[in-house]
Design a protein that fits this description.
Length: 565
């Protein structure tokens, strides 16, 4: 073989390798081809290689399933392999579109531009969107500003989206339709708000009702009509006055240019009922109103539409303390009240319910002056006395010291129990402090008052009322006083200091050894009387009968005292 022929073969091989090498480099890229034939459901595409490729026609249909190519059209395809087992080039229109779309979408994502897409399927948690060949995920929360029940009207319709996130390596794209709507709405709101001004009166349609107010459509933009701005009177819930779809005339109270929030009012279209309120509701005047609301601290009463006053719990009842207002009044009840205070600046009126009835302590003292005897039921026993329930739903207190003339209060109170009806004397009534002082012992006379002429060392006649081991109880005849003679005071003679030698009803003489009217104490003694009589006998007869015995002197004294013996 000649040298020339050998060199020619090497050049041809090099050219062939270069040709195939360049073709191999085309694999995995997008190239242009020409549609040379359409056979049944396949399109035959010449991509400039020694073999042609075939692509399913469905890859050339759009969302509306209409074929978008014809013979002679130049199309971009994705070359997967130059030749397969059939000897054909393996090409794809879908992959070409996807590659092309990713390039465009990445540029749009960087510039934060909107992209067009078509919602074509439902998946878990949302929907799939065709972004001109690239498939993106549309979360359910990003479909609309408000949740929508039926998405069918949005399916297979070309519409704008915003790319929220994309990862080419993983092939993930997340889009939002809601963001587009919010931007559009923001622009519309800006334009609408610019045409509105505070103080303007316009018509609107009630769009939605909540517990705190109603949203009113002002022609493309919503305003909030707060429940407190619906009417001057109390409105517990907007549904009491408004219904969805109702046309209402409102006044623009405030516009926030930054947030585009609009506050509306209906009551502002009417005269303010608080104007000149102090002249109409003068202090101490009485009015009839309707209870509109009851709280822990009182009850609100509507005096006229738009004018409410508060009856504080402390002004509800003279006698029912620490009772919930709901136990005294009920909603919608008609009540008479008295004006206690008016603050027009703060739009407050303080009312009193108890003032419309007489002060029970004033009523009580007018019917039962000090010194009057009353009767009441024992309501409570305490360590310092009794509480009696009196007429007029008031209580009176009997202090321990006013239970009994002769016994300590701690002892006397044991005679009483709850529910007992007890008579007592009115001792004092303090209207301001709402206190009534009573006395049970004052129902009877003061025993010391019947003994004004009683003096120490005086001889008194007593009647035995009781006998016990320690002595005897006696009542001083001619008085209401009673006292106790101890065993040691029953006789001078120790053998005669026996209580059992006395009997109830027996009368005896004794000598007063203590009488303190201020301290309310009296004591008498038989022993002291015997000693005093002995001294008197000695003094009287001792000088006449010198040398006589004590027995003789006493005998003479007794004989003189009782001459019949």
């Amino acid at each position: 073989m000649s040298v020339a022929m050998s060199a020619g073969r090497e050049d041809f091989a090099a050219l062939l390798d270069e040709s195939f090498g360049s073709n191999d480099a085309m694999e995995g890229s997008v190239i242009k081809g020409t549609v040379v034939a359409i056979e049944k459901d396949m399109a035959v595409v010449d991509v400039g290689l020694k073999t042609e490729g075939r692509i399913a026609l469905k890859e050339f249909t759009g969302p509306d399933r209409v074929l978008s190519i014809k013979v002679g059209d130049t199309v971009e395809v994705y070359l997967e392999r130059i030749e397969n087992a059939m000897g054909e080039a393996v090409i794809s229109r879908d992959k070409a579109r996807r590659e092309e779309s990713w390039v465009k979408l990445e540029k749009a994502f960087e510039k934060q531009e909107k992209v067009d897409g078509v919602i074509f399927n439902t998946v878990k948690g949302g929907y799939t969107v065709d972004l001109d060949g690239a498939v993106a995920f549309l979360p359910r929360s990003q479909v609309d500003i408000r949740p929508i029940r039926d998405v069918n009207p949005l399916m297979n319709v070309t519409q704008p989206f915003v790319i929220l996130k994309m990862d080419r390596r993983r092939g993930n794209i997340v889009v939002s339709r809601r963001t587009v709507l919010e931007e559009t709405r923001a622009g519309q709101r800006q334009e609408l708000v610019s045409n509105l001004e505070e103080g303007q009166v316009i018509d609107g349609v009630v769009k939605n009702i909540t517990d705190y107010g109603a949203f009113v459509d002002l022609g493309g933009i919503d305003g909030l009509l707060h429940v407190t701005d619906i009417a001057w009177r109390r409105v517990n819930h907007p549904s009491e006055v408004l219904t969805v779809g109702q046309t209402v005339k409102v006044k623009i109270v405030k516009i926030n240019q930054e947030t585009h929030r609009i506050s509306l009012g209906m009551k502002q279209l009417l005269d303010d009922p608080w104007s000149g309120i102090a002249a109409k509701y003068t202090l101490q005047s009485k009015f009839t109103g309707r209870v509109t609301n009851i709280t822990d601290y009182g009850a609100f009463v509507e005096l006229e539409p738009g004018i409410e006053g508060l009856i504080h719990v402390s002004e509800m009842s003279w006698t029912k303390k620490n009772v919930h207002p709901g136990k005294i009044l009920s909603t919608s009840q008609e009540v008479e009240v008295q004006v206690l205070e008016v603050d027009a600046a703060k739009r407050r009126i303080s009312l009193g319910l108890k003032q419309t009835t007489g002060n029970p302590w004033e009523n009580f003292i007018s019917r039962h002056p000090v010194g009057t005897t009353v009767e009441g039921e024992v309501k409570n026993k305490t360590e310092f006395g009794l509480f009696l329930g009196l007429e007029g739903d008031v209580d009176g207190m009997v202090h321990l010291s006013d239970l009994d003339w002769n016994r300590p209060g701690e002892q006397a109170i044991e005679d009483f129990k709850k529910g007992d009806m007890v008579k007592a004397v009115v001792l004092d009534v303090d209207v301001e402090k709402e206190r009534i002082s009573l006395g049970v012992k004052q129902v009877g006379s003061d025993p010391f008052a019947s003994a004004d002429d009683l003096r120490k060392n005086q001889v008194v006649t007593c009647e035995v009322t009781a006998v016990n081991d320690g002595g005897i109880e006696v009542k001083l005849i001619g008085t209401d006083l009673s006292t106790f003679i101890r065993r040691a005071d029953l006789s001078r003679d120790r053998n005669e200091q026996r209580p059992e030698r006395f009997a109830a009803g027996e009368k005896l003489d004794a000598r007063v050894i203590l009488f303190d009217k201020k301290a309310r104490k009296v004591q008498v003694s038989i022993k002291a009387l015997e000693i005093a009589e002995e001294k008197e006998a000695v003094a009287q007869y001792g000088s006449q009968d010198s040398g006589a015995s004590l027995g003789d002197i006493l005998g003479a004294a007794l004989k003189n005292a009782n001459p019949k013996k």
